[in-house]
Amino acid sequence: MNGASPTPSALYKRPVNGHHNPVNGNHESANGVEIGKKVGKTASFLQWTADDVFNVFRYHWIPCIFGVGLLFFMGVEYTLRMVPASSPPFDVGFVATRSFHRLLTEWPELNTLLAALNTVFVGMQTTYILWTWLMEGRPRATISALFMFTCRGVLGYSTQLPLPQGFLGSGVDFPVGNVSFFLFYSGHVAGSVIASLDMRRMQRWELAWTFDVLNVLQVVRLLGTRGHYTIDLGVGVGAGILFDSLAGKYLESSRRNSAAFANGSPKEAFLSNSKG
């Protein structure tokens, strides 16, 4: 490695004076060459040195922060008084938007306006996701949305959460007409994330940032109207990222298996230029 410092993302490939690597479980010589997966039956941590421990914190500070977070929330979880079954759920997002909720309750015209604007934003998401497939020949975002909404339907039906107290519906909100809907998880948020990720792949940075800002405003409105719990919105972000990744893996797998089809076939046309 000629003395070059490792990048923080590397999984601790830096040799540490020929000592055991505490992250990947290998034993390395002074020049960084792996000389064995395990050394006898000695427990891995018994081979650590002070330098090993220091370098874990130095080069892998992000997992260390999450480790501290794990310990902190273990303490919170085991000492927290649980919400009684007769009480409404506790939601930190509802607490943070209490004033906004009061404003929307007292000013229903504002609630209707924001609902209409949010419906326009959902239409923008849908239009962009379909456009990438039908007009640009890049189906990844569309496949992501199909995966995401189907999984949302399964989970939403499996555990049907009670409608939050103080819900402020609107006839111009999406779904239009105050129809029933699944709370877990937020398809509004997940769809916006899927679109934003596709925009970043295509280096449409300004459009991506615009969608991100609108998504944040959407989250505030959904909390203020009690249209979703905070957990619905947080998982919506994760779902968008997850299903975008799964759609990419699906397309990559399909491309590898498409050699048996002649050029110009429907499958080839579907998969063409699908890296986006």
From TrEMBL:
Superkingdom of the source species: Eukaryota
**Transmembrane residues, as ranges?**
61-80, 113-134, 141-159, 179-197
Keywords from UniProt, A to Z, are: Membrane, Transmembrane, Transmembrane helix
Question: Where are the stretches annotated Disordered?
Answer: 1-27
List, as start-end ranges, the regions of compositional bias called Low complexity: 18-27
Q: Does the keyword Magnesium apply?
A: no
Q: What is this protein called?
A: AtPDCT1/2 transmembrane domain-containing protein
